[in-house]
Amino acid sequence: MCGIIGYAGEQRALPILRTGLENLEYRGYDSVGVALGGDDGLRLFKQAGRIADLALPADDDATVGVGHTRWSTHGKPTDANAHPHTDCTGDVAVVHNGIIENYDSLREELGDHAFTSETDTEVVPHLVETFRDAGHDLPEAVARTLDRLEGTFALGVVAADFDGIVAARRDNPLVVGHGETGNFIASDVTAFLEHTREVTYVEDGDVAVLSEGGVEITNDGRAVDRPRERVEWEAEAAEKSGYDHYMLKEIHEQPTALRQTLSGRIDELNGEAEIEIDLPKEYLNSLDEVTFIACGTSYHAGLYAAQLVESLADVRASAEVASEYEFDGGRDPWRTLVVPVTQSGETADTLSALRRAKRAGARSLAVTNTLGSTVTREADDTVFIRAGPEIGVAATKTFVSQVATLALLTVSVARARGTMSTTEAIEFLSNVRQLPGAVQRVLDAEAAVRDAAETYADGGAFFFIGRKLGYPVALEGALKLKEIAYVHAEGFAAGELKHGPLALVTSDSPVLAVLSQGANAHATLNNVKEVESRGAPVLGCTSVADAEKFLDRSFEVPELGALSPLVANVCFQLFAYHVAKLKGRSIDKPRNLAKSVTVE
Ligand code: M6R
Questions:
Q1: Is 342 near ligand 1, meaning CB less than 6 Å away?
Q2: How far is ligand 1, taken at its centre, from the CA of residue 347, in Å?
Q3: Which of 300, 381, 472, 599 is a Cys-bridge partner for 304, taking CB atoms 3.0 to 4.6 Å apart?
Q4: What is the pLDDT of residues 142-160, one digit of tens each?
Q5: Do 114 and 127 belong to one domain?
Q6: Do 386 and 407 share a domain, yes or no?
Q7: Residue 372: which CATH number?
Q8: Count of beta carbons in the 10 Å neighbourhood of residue 229
Q9: Does residue 348's CB lie within 6 angstroms of at least one atom of ligand 1?
Q10: Domain check: are 272 and 162 in the same one?
Q11: Which residues are catalytic?
Q12: The whole model's pTM is what?
């Protein structure tokens, strides 16, 4: 997740910005930059890479400036794409978190402006420039610019002739700090905690003007009085936004991650998914098959997607564990689309599977969270899931963003192949669009899942069952529990229980079932009865009426058709988290595991 820090006051800004950026490092980043204001004009320092390597002057008199850590979403991690971005004159500099959805059309409209990066952000300083040229001061020019932006943002803007910072937000966090010798803006309080604990949380639509003298906030042109609060957290807790673990923070970030994933990619009116890939219609029509190659959680995302592709795009599809994958070529290898799914983009097993497929002549399309990663350089095409950095070793928000991205890919393929009508696509995309809200509803009911974890945490083994799209979710639920709680957990296709695993089921083995739409819930209820008659307690995530009467605990999942099982997975994440916490496990760094597995 990108990070913003800004300072306007009587102290030198540079050291404050430098430590602010270091404090934001935990959020993950690939590029960094600083703009310093003052009488000599703006001074800009930015580059791809680490803060420690950023060539900053030893000293600088500026008392106003903004800094940024960038996690790439539009445009690769290069020096040119690093923030701050400037207008044509170099007199206005902008740092930005979020996504400007209409940047393409704005860029076109700003045709005579000189753009120097591939970012969506760069339209902002150029728009500010046009309003300044029309005679508006910086705060007014920023306010008018905001009216032109679609998407999400937290912004910090400085200008050569303005002794302060103009900041604004829409659906992206931004906090103001009130210090004794000046004022701050940041993406989160960790950035300036050593200077002040007095903060104001900026609200959607607010424009804040910070200067040495104070902070003025307006909304829709009218002054507003936002409360000041005192932050009592220590820096470490603040990095986790008050959550005990990154994993829990990332579970709760899923609605935001999903909004970023989906931003600008759904044309619900026409039933089209607009993901930025160039797969010609003729190619998609000639496809023999789609193969997802991946490991761990990403493999489960691939299993989910394979079912979507087969059912909606009418082409043979499968998911293969990357370390086991061999490509046999077939009649015309190019007509197999191989899709490596990898959060990190660096997993050795996935990369070598991709290389085997490429050597055999297959076409490839990577799905990843990480711009500039190896998989993006080696695959023929790439689509990004835009979930933001994930710090906990256990994959949570990246799973939901992977599946959401793959769902959009499926629509795109299905529409090109003519296997999905406009009406069907509109209905499916409407469910996709509702994912963030549905996930939020499950998160709001966390207390019930925590309570169930408290009751059943001592189970000897845990079995997760599901059918259809519930099956990959059952596998993922079990993986999460074993990975962070170190307990025996297995995921089964519910119908397979009676073919062996039922022998393991006792009153000491809670069973967790996916009983939602998209998971053939009624058939799974029969399996629920099978395990109940062996004394096992059953916990179910359900969107099916009356299912709860068969369950010891039931967690409601909103009805979202084929996407309901994905939402059910959030219950399993929370269950795993709370069991692991009760057992005192090292949740963010489970034993023997690494976030990115770069050896085969
Ligand atoms: O970075 P990748 O998505 O390629 O990683 C694949 C697996 O190592 C990863 O999903 C792993 O299974 C997770 N830590 C599970 O939570």
A1: yes
A2: 8
A3: 472
A4: 999 999 999 889 999 999 9
A5: yes
A6: yes
A7: 3.40.50.10490
A8: 13
A9: no
A10: no
A11: 2, 595
A12: 0.77
